[in-house]
Amino acid sequence: MTATDTALTGLAQGWCALSLLHGRIEGHIERALQAGHGLSVREYSLLDVLSRQHDGEGGHLQMKQVADAVVLSQSATTRLVSRLEDRGLLTRYLCPTDRRGIYTNVSEAGLRLLAEARPTNDTALREALDEAAKVPELAALVRTVESPGSAA
Fold first, then answer.
1. Which residue from 106, 112, 66 is spatially nearest to 84, judged by alpha carbons?
2. pTM
3. Pairwise CA distance, residues 33 & 51, whole Å
4. What CA–CA distance (Å, rounded) separates 137 from 121?
5. Dihedral angle sign, alpha carbons of residues 25, 21, 45, 146
6. Nearest-angstrom CA–CA distance, 75 and 4
7. DSSP reduced 3-state for 147
8. Which residues contact 88 (CB under 8 A, 6 or more apart)?
9. Would you say 130 and 39 are in contact if contact means Cβ atoms under 8 Å apart?
10. How far is residue 150's CA from residue 152's CA, in Å, rounded to a whole number?
């Protein structure tokens, strides 16, 4: 085995640990949000991202920006927006300055559901990190996630 092989093996192991940590966290949060609020992790994330928009210059996100923020393709994001709109959690309207643009905002019902779900999300995240910290292969990653300023 060469030094390069060793480095790649370490890199692959790190990637596997990161993937495992992500899967554990997402799965735990998914179960908590579904049980408590009838929301998936992606639905919660979309509501959260869209709730941070504001009126004014650069205040509304384009669908590509939303898709990037929730880590979905544009088509999957559009379908997700449509589902939440059908549930009355989002509204869409034409951009007042560019009739080709469509804005998506969180409705009052969506904001209420998001506010109710936020503590569930935060608690589930804390629980998932605490459980993952007990796994030796994940402990260092958990410490990195928990350290202030770790998300560059």
1. 106
2. 0.85
3. 18
4. 24
5. positive
6. 39
7. coil
8. 107, 109, 110
9. no
10. 6
3 state DSSP class of 4: helix
**Per-residue model confidence as pLDDT tens digits over 31-65:** 999 999 999 999 999 999 999 987 777 778 888 88
The DSSP-derived string for 33-57 is HHHHHS--HHHHHHHHHHHT--SST
User: Do the Cβ atoms of 67 and 77 come closer than 8 Å?
Assistant: yes
60-116 pLDDT, tens digit per residue, is 888 888 899 999 999 999 999 999 999 999 998 887 777 777 888 999 999 999 999
> One-letter amino acid identity for 127?
E
Q: What are φ and ψ of residue 101, in 5° steps?
A: -85, 145
What does the alpha-carbon distance between residue 144 and residue 152 come to, in Å, rounded to a whole number?
11
Nearest to 145 by CA among 134, 70, 132, 135: 132
CA 75, CA 93: separation in Å to the nearest integer?
19
Q: Which residue has the tokens 């643009």?
A: 101
* Token pair listed for 70: 């929730």
